[in-house]
Amino acid sequence: MRFSVVEAGYDRRQVDACLDELDLRLRRLAARAEGVAGTGREWDRIRLDAGHLCDYLRRRAAPADPSDADVPAGPSTAEREAAEREAADLVARARAELDAAREEARLVREEAYAEALRARREFEAALLARRRREARVDEILSGARVPADTPTAAAGR
Questions:
Q1: So what's the pLDDT on residue 128?
Q2: If residue 101 lies in a helix (H) or strand (E), which one and from where to where?
């Protein structure tokens, strides 16, 4: 985040655009975090951190007094650097969590695909065996007839 220097600090439009972009990214990140299946404490903490950072950005972007709207009264360098470090840290943690969640989702997808493939193969094998039995039964039933006077296993009882 680099801003052009003007007479009274940084170019306000660039700073506002940057804050808007950060706000949008953080909202998307929070939405992604909510959308991911993980509902553990870590996700709750990330959502809470993202929410706090969004609130912080909104407070910094909105002038406290409407008459101060034209006066660029931004945070001090130390505050700005601290906020940038905090934002960078939050984004890094969120990216790491997102990468981990993506990897976990990929593994779950692969496992589900393999299980579905196994189930389909078993189903097709069972269906083939059934069709073979059916064909054999049809062959037996349509083949030579057994004369009525031929002894069978059931007749021996």
A1: 94
A2: helix 77-142
